[in-house]
Amino acid sequence: MRFLFGFIASLAALVLIACTSETTTSQNSPDANLSAQPQAPVAPINYIQNLNARKTQSLDGKWARIIDPYENGYYNYRYQVHDNGFFKNQKKEGPRDLVEYNFDTSPKLTVPGDWNTQERELYYYEGTLWYQRYFDLQKREGQKYIVQFGAVNYHAIVYVNGEKVGEHEGGFTSFQFDISEFVKSGENFIVLKVDNSRARDQVPTVNTDWWNYGGITRSVFIAVIPDTHIIDYTLSLSSDMSTIKGTVTVSAATHNAPVTLTIKELGISETFAVSENGTLAFSLPASPKLWSPERPKLYDVSLSYDADTLRDKIGFRTITVEGDKVLLNGKPVFMRGISIHEESLLHAGRAHSKADARATLELAKDLGTNFVRLAHYPHNEAMVKMADELGLMVWSEIPVYWTVLFGDEAVYRKAETQLVEMMTRDKNRASIVMWSVANETPLSDERHSFLGRLINKARRMDNTRLITAAIDTHSMSENEIVLEDPLAEKLDVIGINSYCGWYWAVLEDCAKKVWKSGYDKPIIMSEMGGGAKAGLRGDAGEIWTEEFQATVYDYNLQMADNIDGLAGISPWILKDFLSPRRQLGGIQDDWNRKGLVSETGEKKLAWDVLQSYYEKKAAE
Ligand code: GCU
Description:
By secondary structure, this protein is α/β, with parallel strands linked by helices. The protein contains seven helices and 33 strands. It has three domains: about 50-225, Jelly Rolls (Sandwich), CATH 2.60.120; about 230-320, Immunoglobulin-like, CATH 2.60.40.10; about 325-530 and about 565-575 and about 605-620, Alpha-Beta Barrel (TIM Barrel).
């Protein structure tokens, strides 16, 4: 971790959260075409909120796969895009037909799931891999057929019945394509070209401290919706907690059909006319039971418009800052957190299911948390819905991580698209209390401008949540650590990643260190900790023993108590996780060992240290 020497001008600011709100829909902006020949970008659709709540047909299960490191299924020998590439799913018909691929006889991969943990040959694979499957459909007039992917890492080109329907860049956000004009009644097939190659101009860029899991890593389904349908909706509690505010966007206002909102338990059943541009905004007096970690109350909400009806479970709460305090429902809250990567406790690789989410978040609750930092990218939808249900506040983050190319406008657009996609999918999740725009990004004017634009965009989209980022630039003298990052001025909550006694400083000195922040703002210690191999016991002075990790926690928690304005901590990390940067044989073996539990869920001594600290904090 780097530090700079210097002091920061002191600033006192009560954060005023922007008072404008704008609903937006995530445009799956077609990516800069990868092909050698320019291709007309396929018209993206707006992201249809809560598509899963409509009539759906799952495409999860076994898909054929072809590994294609030379992209032979996409480019011809002149490096031009094939017009009859693998996406055509060609079959040999005549005795001399030369077709040098066949999905029907290819091995299978399970979707959802990363490919790295499904086949030994794919453990390190970075490149293109083709997926293909068939599906049946009964096509009807007046219906739209939308395919939704929970996530595909990193770049996906989607084809239906041999025709390109769209492409998406970004490994951790949900996207959709309208395939109505491409499907037919009877048997259809879908093909994806998935490429998880890392590149300098991507988000994240080439260097991360997590495994580059490739593939269709989250669920896929086709939703059938009426031509006239609800595209987007937002419901939230007003800052004075007296009214429920909402917006709805519908696909076409030609119908003068009303929108009906029902929240039975609150005695709400309201009908609203939509404006000629298909939008409406409303504000209804209500006194809902407030959502909180202690009492995660969710209400059954239904919305209908013409022939489209959807249901959702929504919690109502406020989250604000006042000076150096975070207020949940108007009351100061200390965020007893833990950081989490999206790896399953139940199986190898990427987590994606409700069972994964329940196992991980119940373990986090067992630790005594009321807060989770979902690092370093948006997690799957089951995770945030489970946080709503179990009562955990969430820090949700886009992977603007370390050294992305801050001076590149196309990279900014990629980051902003991922921000919009993250916020559009999850804007009705009460558990999400803050959006994070970055993690440990190096200081520069370009980085300041890049992140400033993201922060402004997030504020314009959502004035009901806090904006944060994890920063790691501190100045340090003998016993004083001073926050040193101008980005802090733009944040509601300042995240600090600090590895006192692991990456820097003598461990025993950490308890004496006093943090100084020149800001009257809440601070969250968004990372701290150290590594241990589960089961390695020995002297507390010996690195990699459980005793040493427990001592790191002990001293850093004493240091945390020295931080004025500390509103919470989310130590790094709940579970050991795979990273190509962790190569110490016999200890790491590709695992980052900073977990409080091992990759098999075995608790380490440091678990007890943090758990008793949280018991004490909860009793305060
Ligand atoms: C950094 C970074 C994490 C990383 C951790 C570590 O702070 O944010 O992504 O895994 O430190 O070094 O283990």
